[in-house]
Amino acid sequence: MGKIRTPLYNALIQHRQLNPLSFHVPGHKNGILYDPNQFPHFRQTLQLDLTEIANLDDLYASEGIIKEAQQLAAELYGVSSTYFLVNGSTVGNLAMILANCQKGDVVFVQRNSHKSVMHGLELAGAKPVFLSPKFDEGFQVPSYVPVETVKKAFQKYPQVKAIILTSPTYYGLTYTKLNELIQFAHSRRVPVLVDEAHGAHLIASSSFPKSAVSVGADVVVQSAHKTLPAMTMGAFLHVNSKLVNEEKISHYIHMLQTSSPSYLIMASLDLARAYVEDMLTKEEELNQTLHKYVEIFQRLDYIDIVSSKDPFVAVDPLKLTIRSQNAMSGYDLMKLFEKARIYPELADPLNVLFVLPFAKEFQDTGHFSKVNDILKSTQTSKMEWGLQKEVQIDEISQLSISYEAMENCTKTFVSLEEAIGEISAEMIIPYPPGIPLLMRGEKITKNQIEALKRLIKLRANFQGGMKLAEGLISIFRKR
């Protein structure tokens, strides 16, 4: 990466070169408590797992290397401030919501948002107004909220205090008119908060969809670890507006995030930012590498690469979604790849999603030849229902009861059929991707129950739904 600066990482290396003797936390003492014969990899890694000692700065009172590393990230992304997050995008979403949404505030929320957004709204005691996204006919998944829907919501709820969006989606779908949506919100002095967990790399190439930081979003949270070479839980929070109170955002980050931040994660964020800087000069090599991966998937038998038919969707080239030509479920198709030791990101009833490397070098170790043999030898039967059925939800909707009212209700379990028309007492989330199918406080519809049954039959994984395996859902009853 040439002369690109990595101040935090360099400081950890320099400290290690001192051959220091640790009488401070963490208790592994620079890794020496791990037997070098039994745990050599862990022992070596933990030599850089340090804490707030001389010359290593303090994340929550940064004046040296951490401050410099965060400033370098802000300069790269073209924002006023960047915060390093060591508890993932989840803590960033919580902080930006709590800093901008007070109890009783009306907040517009993209319906297919991550569960952490829903948790933030509940903690804030806000009144979410859910905006249903367009359904992408090509991918057969929810996509973006059109600007027209936002304008309708403003007419109905002019007192709105913030808009919370997700861009890109897990599948890499990005709304090409996001800038227009943001401009409209700003004309009403309403900030736009964006969960861009899957878009930390978007600024690196003109062939990528535009990042929310580039089109004027006020606060943007990015999971650097999802597409950049950062450690798991490493994330960025970018502030780029006077419509939001940065002091409050900082306050909530300090409140919600661990008081013992991982220096390994922070150093990986420093390196990830440097990596993006370097990749800005490698756009041609990057595009060639991605093209080679696409060609490999195109050569696989009985496989189609999924594309969007929506003229207002730009698809992230790092996200490659495939589907079986034999109508095999996405879950079963993913298992065939896993037999060849190829591990995709996720599957849904129809699709399998792959996250391609954000890299300038191409790697093929022969795994794809093996998976093709498996694909050719596998007999499949057609799925009973063909394409996914869109869960019909109102374009603009609210919870049936407030978060506060939920606290005064009792809960009981009923069968899936009996739950139709009742108020859900639990959030049920197919995971991945982590988008709630059913939210607490929401009236349960027949369409949602049918979708839930389909996913259960396909052996999807869920978070929430304590007794789904028994065919039961928790609902609210008034005391």
Task: Explain what this protein looks like in three dimensions.
This is Arginine decarboxylase. Residues 402-462 form the Orn/Lys/Arg decarboxylase C-terminal domain. This protein is α+β, with helices and mostly antiparallel strands. The protein folds into 3 domains: 62-258, Aspartate Aminotransferase, domain 2 (3-Layer(aba) Sandwich), CATH 3.40.640.10; 283-377, Alpha-Beta Complex (Aspartate Aminotransferase, domain 1), CATH 3.90.1150.150; 399-478, Molybdopterin biosynthesis moea protein, domain 2. The chain has 16 helices and 20 strands. It has helices spanning 7-17, 40-45, 65-77, 88-100, 115-124, 147-156, 178-187, 224-227, 246-256, 263-279, 283-298, 330-339, 367-377, 403-406, 416-419, 446-457, and strands at residues 81-85, 106-110, 127-131, 135-136, 141-142, 162-166, 173-175, 192-195, 219-222, 235-239, 303-305, 313-315, 319-324, 346-347, 351-355, 396-398, 409-415, 429-430, 462-463, 472-478. An 8-stranded mixed β-sheet has the order 1-10-9-8-6-2-3-16, sandwiched between helices. α1 (7-17) crosses α10 (263-279) and α3 (65-77) runs parallel beside α10. The chain is globular and about 65 Å long. The chain starts with 6 loop residues before the first helix and ends with a strand. The model has no long low-confidence stretch (mean pLDDT 94).
Write the layout of secondary structure elements.
Blueprint: H1 7-17, H2 40-45, H3 65-77, E1 81-85, H4 88-100, E2 106-110, H5 115-124, E3 127-131, E4 135-136, E5 141-142, H6 147-156, E6 162-166, E7 173-175, H7 178-187, E8 192-195, E9 219-222, H8 224-227, E10 235-239, H9 246-256, H10 263-279, H11 283-298, E11 303-305, E12 313-315, E13 319-324, H12 330-339, E14 346-347, E15 351-355, H13 367-377, E16 396-398, H14 403-406, E17 409-415, H15 416-419, E18 429-430, H16 446-457, E19 462-463, E20 472-478
Parallel strand pairs: 2-3, 2-6, 6-8, 8-9
Antiparallel strand pairs: 1-10, 3-16, 4-5, 7-12, 9-10, 11-13, 13-15, 14-15, 17-20, 18-19
Helix pairs in contact: 1-10, 3-10, 4-5, 4-9
Pfam families: OKR_DC_1, OKR_DC_1_C
Organism: Aeribacillus pallidus
InterPro entries: Orn/Lys/Arg_deCO2ase_major_dom, Orn_Lys_Arg_decarboxylase-I, Prn/Lys/Arg_de-COase_C, Prn/Lys/Arg_de-COase_C_sf, PyrdxlP-dep_Trfase, PyrdxlP-dep_Trfase_major
